[in-house]
Amino acid sequence: MNFKRISMITVLAAAQVSMAFPAAAESPDITAPALNSQSALQSPVEGQSQQSGEQQTDMQQAEETSATPKETPSDSVEGTISDPNAEPSTPNEQQEQEDTDSDPSDNEVSENESGSPSGDKPEVSTSHVSANELVLLMNSNVMYHNGKKYKAGQPMAVKQGVSYVAIRAMVERAGLKLSYDNKTKETIILKDGNELRFTTGSSNYKVNGQVRPMKGPAYQSSNVFMVPLTAITQALDIPYRVNQPEKKVILDLSGMGSGNGNGQQPGGNNGGGSGSEVPNIPNLGPNDLILMMNSNKMYQNGKAYTAGQPMAVKNGVSYVAIRSLVDRVGLKLTYDGKTKETIIIRGNDELRFKTNSSVYTVNGVRKSMKGPAYQSNNTFMVPLTSITQALDISYRVDQPNKRVILSLSSKPVASFTVQPGEILAGQTTVTYKTNAYSPTGLAIVDEHWEGREEIFDEPGVHTVSYSVQDSSGEWSDPYILSIQVSAPNTPPVAMFETDKQEYKIGEKITYMNMSYDNDPGDELTYKWENNDQAFFTAGTHKVLLIVTDKHGATSSYEKIINVTSEVLYTRDQFNQLFTGIGDKYTFDGSAVPTWKLMPITRSSEPYLLIRSNSPETVYQEGIVYREVGNASTRFMIHHLNATGKNMKMYVVATNINTMTARLTTEYTGLGGPINIPTATGKAAVQRYLESMQSADAFKTISLAPGESRIILQDLSAQTLKNQQVLSMFADLYSDSPIRYDVIMIDEAKDPIQKLPYLKLHPSDGVHNRGTYPDSTRIIESYDLVGDTPTRLALGDKTNDPNLEGYDGINGSYQSNAGNFGVLYKIKLHRVAPNTLITLNPRGGKYMGAMMVNGNIIQTPNTSGGAVSAPNEAAVLYRTGNYEQTVEILFTAAPGSSLPINILLQPLPQLKN
Questions:
Q1: H/E/C letters for each residue in 272-328?
Q2: Pairing, β 554-567 against β 359-362
Q3: CB 492 within 8 A of CB 524
Q4: Which of 167-176, 373-382, 650-659 is the least confident region?
């Protein structure tokens, strides 16, 4: 059978196959250069292996893996790789043959797809396109053929790392015949008596009845039949090249089927080592570098070179010996012994690679690679596309002759950037940072600017170009940048008004901010001075407003407030009436202990509390608490990392039964990691209460007998740095006993694997830990309350007894001081009209949150810091003109001080 004749179809498919290299179009770190400030070659060229008697294409090997199963337009052409464990060594290079096994597969199916010619002028340059070459635009459905524009039924797409093309549009451009077999449900391509058959959903296709694998299954998209590009190009032997900077792939339809087809390298002897073996390649640039696939041979300027290792494929990604490539490009290679990094120097740019890392840096900016760099017999190997991406090297692939040709210009290269990002006409001084180098290592001796200004006087788009000359006299192409210059900034105007010109003592003042800025979209910040809600001394009071825009321009406005000697409200009366919900105010709290206690009934719900809070400060990794829980179980976790290194906390659940156990995570709240214990505890309580407002987050897992699994992933997702604190609340339910281990361990270690070897930490003797039953406390009041000053004491041990329990590790008796971890469900059935309800700490500073009648109230609000004992109170609720029922959910915030009192008192009479 004559596959080379069929290659015309393949060529068309290959046009879109330029994307066939598994493209991870959705990841910003692996996009092609047009989508990135660093232009990149995204098309890995893979080694060859034989399968089903046919040689696989490098492009197919590149399609080994996939980032996501979602179909996306393709804008890159690079495969992915796994993470080999190689020991670091210096980047010396020696020869070693690498395995290059790959698995070609293509399949496509479509019945009603069309490509239509358009009379539109081509949108891309075709000055370098020869007759009968098909130009495919990446991430587009546009194609160009013989000077005409066509559109495929669907744009080139990537599914699971495989590039797909619309088969009908490709076949029409190749001049081949497409048909459909209704009996076998196969799409058929015919060329000179040869027959290719594709089936929807299949990862195989047939060539004259012989089954061939593809890298992915053919599929239908909006009635357009899509197949892997490499399946077509392999079968039809279509040469192509990739123009990465212009985002296009060019298929040579005139060369379709013209390759030798046997996988031999050009030159007649598989890439020998002398000048006589240099391939004869048309349109070869004077400095172009030819890499032979599956070989260590390279050719440049008529000479043959030998790399330290042959091009190798690992997990679908092509690797090259970095030193050999850099030497041929004319750049400088060094090694940093301190950081263990291999460094490429290009002009002012510095590229750093590290063994076993899938990340490299360009001038300190991290970039992703499709696979980790590795060492092979002291030869440092990196993905080829990482080099081409970073250095903006175009290339083309000669598949029939098994070679990749890198286009290396001898011209110097110039570029520049400007700062700052926003430039204002007549105001901003522009800083230019240049970067220039010679690919052949020559010195840069001169430069030329056009349109450069230190300060641009007029707004609009200004074009600036920069060129450099090397010591041979050759000039670079001009690097052109369009700079957007905005109109000059105008300062804001500060202005405010008050609802009156004169006020009584204690009368509420309403401020109306009327500031503005004439610049569209300018962001303003406001700073007030002395804008009290009311004044409590007669006379004049100055109020100042300062407004600042994002450029730092400011404006201020001052107003005099006149206050008479007539008293409307005292300070206490005003605070009780007008302090915002969640805000705090100051009062004389010395009398609070004399207020009568609220008459209540107390009961409980059977919720097991596991309080993990000792050792509160953890100095070494280990198990900080262990307990067996059944049915309803609540966690309260609060620990500080003092190990001196990054740690993580985990809760590991182990099924200790002979039957499968089901475990449901219900409500959770995490605070931290930060180094402020009170703020961490407040955040944990607030998020815990927020989770109760919706049951959508419930998650149930099954545990096999003896199985251990990490639960509460929000906790273990956080890296806990030294001196940082984590707090967490969690309500769980299991249908059988589960052993829980709360552990702190080095962030790099596997908690399940290390669990049997971790030590059990003793308590620190200061803070509390323990297991406490009946940890949901129900408090109800049926009498009328609020008509006289009344208090409800929580966490004081006397009026609110501590829960009693035991230490789950050593079995000792424990009393839950402060009742941290207890959830209080408080229901006041009869609250008098016009009653003020506040939170008043009695043991120290308190930062937390409560739910009052379904609304979460911060105590105090975020900007208020903490509420301090005994003379501060945070407002929780005010009743109206009628008697009401008030329901409160409260749990003490870790890191804060207990006890607290909930105060109820009559509001002062509201005056006009």
A1: CCCHHHCCCCCCCCCCCEEEECCCCEEEECCEEEECCCCCEEECCEEEEEHHHHHHH
A2: unpaired
A3: yes
A4: 167-176
